[in-house]
Specification:
Largest sheet: 4 strands, antiparallel
Strand content: 5-15%
Number of strands: 4
Helix content: over 70%
Strand order of the largest sheet: 2-1-3-4
Distance between the termini: 32 Å
Length: 212
């Protein structure tokens, strides 16, 4: 579904939706929260499936006695609400479909893979240089010649460069894992937005067809 379709669908159904967890821990989206789940907290969604409010769970008696805990939960709820809203708005602005996100993922990871490939090529080159120096040094020793200190220092310098390149490779690999995970999370979140819009349409259709 394109971004424009998302906004049209949202405009068609202005009633708010609520997202909560049922007794089995499954995430449910509906036009209302069951009475027995209200105290456990829930999220309020707008017509685009974006979170507009996070209602925290009710506090226990012990927690109510702690003003510090009350304020902490309030701050966490506000921060989570803002994080989800910012995330949803960013996704809607940047992408029109899940395929758009996957394309961006392929481009972003492709560039990183190229850089990683260059680093690996540099490592192979350095390793080959070390092996060449070591072979020549061995040949000199077998011929009864002393290997110059400068020659040995060059081998150690190359080994040091290999260590640094290995560190850069590890950092790049970690970066690839993190960025790939971020794109995967974006895809999952965007799919959730699409699902909410589709669910809203289905629920509204069911209500319209139900006898009054």
């Amino acid at each position: 579904m394109a971004c424009g379709q998302l906004f049209l669908a949202g405009a068609a159904f202005s009633q708010k939706l609520y997202r909560y967890s049922d007794a089995q821990g499954k995430v449910v989206v509906d036009f209302q929260v069951p009475a027995d789940r209200i105290s456990l907290g829930y999220e309020v969604l707008n017509s685009k499936g974006m979170v507009v409010n996070v209602v925290p769970r009710e506090l226990t008696e012990e927690e109510l006695e702690s003003q510090e805990m009350t304020e902490k939960l309030r701050r966490e709820a506000v921060a989570e609400q803002q994080r989800l809203r910012d995330w949803d708005e960013s996704l809607m602005l940047r992408y029109s479909s899940i395929e758009d996100i996957k394309d961006a993922q392929r481009r972003g990871l492709g560039n990183l893979e190229i850089r990683l490939s260059i680093l690996r090529g540099n490592r192979r080159s350095l390793k080959q240089q070390v092996e060449n120096y070591q072979t020549q040094a061995a040949d000199k020793e077998r011929a009864g010649h002393e290997v110059e200190v400068e020659w040995l220092r060059k081998i150690e310098d190359l080994r040091g460069e290999i260590v640094n390149v290995d560190k850069d490779i590890a950092k790049r690999q970690q970066e690839i894992r993190e960025i790939s995970g971020e794109y995967d999370a974006d895809i999952k979140r965007f799919r959730m937005l699409l699902d909410v819009v589709e669910l809203r349409r289905n629920l509204s259709a069911e209500r319209a067809s139900s006898p009054r």
